[in-house]
Amino acid sequence: ETVHLADYAPVPVTVTHLDVSFQLDPKATRVSSRLTCKRQGPGEMVLNGEGLKTLSVTLDGVPLDADRHTLGDRTLTLHDAPDEFLLETVVEIAPADNKALSGLYMSNGMYCTQCEAEGFRRITWMLDRPDVMATYDVAIDSDLPVLLSNGNERAAGVWHDPWPKPTYLFALVAGDLVATSDSFTTMEGKDVALNVWVRPGDEDRTAYALDALKRSMAWDEEVYGRAYDLSVFNIVAVDDFNMGAMENKGLNVFNSRYVLASPETATDADYANIERIVAHEYFHNWTGNRITCRDWFQLCLKEGLTVFRDEQFSQDQRGYAVQRIGDVMNLRARQFREDAGPLAHPVRPESFVEINNFYTATVYEKGAEVIGMLRTLIGAEAWDQGVALYFERHDGEACTIEDWLAVFEEAAERDLTQFKLWYSQAGTPRVRVTEHFSDGLYRIDLAQSVPPTPGQPDKQPMVIPLAFGLLDREGNEIRPTEVRELTTAGDSLTFDLAEKPVLSILRGFSAPVILEFDRPDADRLTLLAHDTDAFSRWEAGRVLAKDRLMRAISEDAEFDAGWLDAVATLAQDDNAEPAFRALALALPSEDDLAQSLHEAGIVPDPDRIHLTRRAAQMAVAERLANALPDLRAAMATPGAYSPAAEDAGKRALSASLLKLQTMRDGGAAARRVYDTADNMTDRMAAFACLLDVGDPDVAAQFEADWSHDRLVMDKWFMAQVAHATPVDAVGVAERLTKRADFDPSNPNRFRALIGGLTTGNPAGFHRADGSGYAFVTDWLLRLDPSNPQTAARMSTAFDSWRRYDADRQALVREQLDRMAAADPSRDLAEMVARMRAA
Ligand code: ARG
Ligand code: ZN
Asked: Which of 622, 673, 692, 814 has its Cα between 20 and 30 A from that of 527?
């Protein structure tokens, strides 16, 4: 049941058009479809179906004889299909019973679909693969007032999509919905109706998503010359959704948490996510829909590129430096972790059992970094030419990474064979830097290596673009940024200089690598204070902090005044943006420290990491001490709440400072903020602080105010688990699961609670008695039969188990064995098998 990239073959018979009609019913929806089929080579036509009650199959209007077809459990095989024919099927499905949230399902009384990657086969018989592209006519029969599908509406509930698309982009929505509407005129002069559809009562929370959509449309025209191509663009918010959102042609379906926002209910982070995800799904219209993937191994072709584009968009909307630092933090937290463990896989995997297990940080975020490197290596001009060529040459096609790279080989007149290793070699490359200075000669030695990963013991050297500059001892830049390519295992750079400079390397995080660079603190302090590259400044501070924390954990080292002074100076530096200062104040996460200790050959102790990190925060709080209230007052954002980056940055710094202040005043300031906040960003910051100090009332107060609001209550569930003491965390989580409003079939609620423990409270999850592991396993096994996708995804909590001590490893192994023995879904079975093999 493993699928291999090497086995790709085109279908012998394809489908060019679908006529599908739906008679909606919760328990018995009837789907009648007519496929226009066309032979393109010899062989049998094998259609996909899953859980369908097949009522009839006819070919050119004639019921199929038994010897002309085989109706299997998951396949319908036509033995001697003619060159051109119409295949008609009628099936029955039960959307109300579909708790996997894949295919056609119901969420809060509305019908909706999720077809990526292989959900269409749960709706009707079809060639459910991305290289089969067809036009669609869809008719929806239902009493519900709003009936939506892809394309343009011809009559009530009758839709036509003129753009050929694969099945995974099909969508249908039906329900009692209300729209907030607007319009956009494209650069080609086409008027597009824009609608954001939500349940009645939510319409006052749609403005920001709609605004983000218009900005995305304008940006894609301006930056990539891409205009929208239908007369309507619909977004629908759905409460039960396995992922963030889905780019169905002309009908994007969103997890409601990434649509609905008001100042009272959404945080700045929610607003930023809404902006980014609305843009991401919109940008897919060209990178994904007009040009799609030949097969699922090419997933990064659309996802890496679209993440790259949404990151560029967010940089333009919110400021380059802060956005870039945030994206790098996210990459390191999720992708580097993935790359370092049993689930490591290439950006373009070569085999899989269940494709849904490969919607990963590696495919998405590392995929985006690979594209960023490509742009750096060939330059902005060749990049623009190559992308334009890609759109021109491949519009309407289902493509591969080879197609993608070929346009840049042409545009840049450069061979990309070695660069392509970024798509096939898993693991995070290490770049070791050593400096030498004597007699006016400064030399940098560079050495690269890529660690072994599952199935890939030996690696070849990669092309690594290293952006660097040089500063003098006083911090003046003496050589501006240039990019050198490291293409061999080792290389050196030399410069004639009177004194040893301060090297600023990996500026802007020019490659997704781990830098190994032992250097004097003085150099790092110079970079932190003076570097012209904001990422590199922030990075210098992060390395200093990490070094302090690692030594405090492993050798009981004290937090030295030099470091604390540098942190305090930056926190108070009015020349730096507040958002940047907030990022600079953030200490490396507990998970990051655990991984780094492990790589340094030290077995991480989760409790010790937790306590040491708190001690470091306390040391920073004491250093800033009486300056904290004034610093925080200076970050006030008077007037009406604005989600824009400037105010959000002030609130972010204010929240960091409030956390420090809470360590000194026991929560007095946080209590005042909580009681007076007029927005959810400040309120959540204060809520977290009050939970940290064990405030006995705040959880009940929050609940009294917000029990009616599902999205806000997700925050409540998560925060209580994440901010419980490590000793209490599992107990708190367990108690919360007993509440009537803990509905595990809602993925947001499940992720809030379980993720609150596994990622929000690592010391609680890794309790030495194994209770965290057992608790999470119990819930994964409970969810798996109904929703394998989310269960499998959440199982990644265990992917770092090999870092820990023998006792903890034995406890995790017990749980992995328990899952393997429980006859899990294909999704969960694949994940568990990969993690057990470590
Ligand atoms: N293509 C969607 C996005 O990037 C993700 C949908 C993935 N869904 C899934 N079931 N694997 O926004
Ligand atoms: Zn995407």
From this structure: 622
